[in-house]
Amino acid sequence: KPSDWVATAETCSALEGKGLDKIWQHIQAYRRQTTINGYFQEHRKQQAKYWMEESINEQLKSLFMSHPSIQQQFKAIEQQVIEGKISPFRAAENLIALFKGP
What we know:
Blueprint: H1 20-36, H2 39-65, H3 68-82, H4 88-100
């Protein structure tokens, strides 16, 4: 694994308050090891990149789906895809064209 971490299994019970200290020790050991070998920071960078891209995707999708032309035509085009009258790729192209306008 890129982190060089070897996972172990422990049992614990939050209800009974048993084994939580052992779990916390494993968490601290993981953090310590991956901080030393640089994996922790590198993984954080990759997570930040991923979440930036996810945020863009969600915002674009929201903007797209709230566009008046899309709201007007989406269900009809979706139904054409379901019925096999148009490919999903052509449907997407048509919807993007509606979104972009003339």
